[in-house]
Design a protein that fits this description.
heterodimer; A: 207 residues; alpha/beta; 7 helices; globular; B: 171 residues; mainly alpha; 1% strand
Chain lengths: 207, 171
Amino acid sequence: MTELLYPFLSASRLRMTTDGEGVTTLVAGSACPLACKYCINKKVLQQKPTLLTAQELFRKVSIDDLYFQATGGGVTFGGGESLLHAPFIQEFSTLCKGRWRIYAETSLCVPQEHIDIAAQCVDGFIVDIKDMDPNIYKAYTGKDATLPHQNLLHLKELVGPDRILVRIPLIPGYNTEAHQAHSAELLKSMGFTRLDLFPYIIKESNS
Amino acid sequence: MRGKSKCKILKQIRQKIAQENDIPLVTKECTYQGECSGTCPRCEAELRYLEQQLVRRQQLGKTVTVAALSLGLVAGAAGCSLQVVGKVPLEGEPLASLEEPTELDGDVAWEDTATAGAPTAPLCTTDPELWESTGVLSTEELVVGELPEATDDTAFELPGYVAFSEGEGND
């Protein structure tokens, strides 16, 4: 059986409050199906990845094992699109089961099979939904909104709303606070209870 | 999270682990001026020391308590950054409220009052070169999902770090 490899780009230790509960290490893998104008990791995504096995990544992030255990934290997969690597995340989760939590920051713009795999091994999903208006979504990401919206509902059916945090950004030049509020109302009507309305921060590195 | 807040929280976590496991751990106020990523040599040395002491306790057949010791400390002490529509329940209670860090003048040596055989932590100075060598990355405040542009693998390969091996302590 071919060993799964993860295209590791970068990692950031000791994250607090921003990427999952407790102390977390944010790990980024390459590749993303979207082309967001203000992608926050645009330059990191241009780097050449290092291929790591699950064991190698596990040993790498274990440096903060005590913090993870003490705070109920763990590893957050980002990127890029984290769920493109759902099979790898599943293998990684077998190494830290019962010890650390696993979070995934995702756009949900992935094949549904990846959602099914992730639902079994990811403790918390942080979903950047961009905007629920399909025209705004297409204008900003370059992709159709149908797949991520379908996956969002599918994910809720699999894991329930408590494991999903939906982030609704205010995207300069693309949507307004009214659009944000409308997206929030729509998501609440769909049964989502954990929402985060926030503004995109445009830095020189991602503009 | 800005300034010394992260360092303060991590120190509280280490103190809690030491306290719950009867591990002597004397900490001194850090005199580094500026934002902190929590990976300075002193803090890392304390973490490695705790790991070694916990392994020693396990080998002696003593109970080791780490899991969920500091639930809620991070969110409760640092303040949640989310504008949440609908409540997000927090697990547990914050262990302690944050105090403003006491600024001390000059360098303060780390006193090793641990049991014999414990590693001696290097002095923590305000020398910027020392910080660079430990792989401290950008100190600009990072937002959700953002990674520092400068990737430095040495942040995961510090002196004294022994990688966790599969099968050790797994549930």
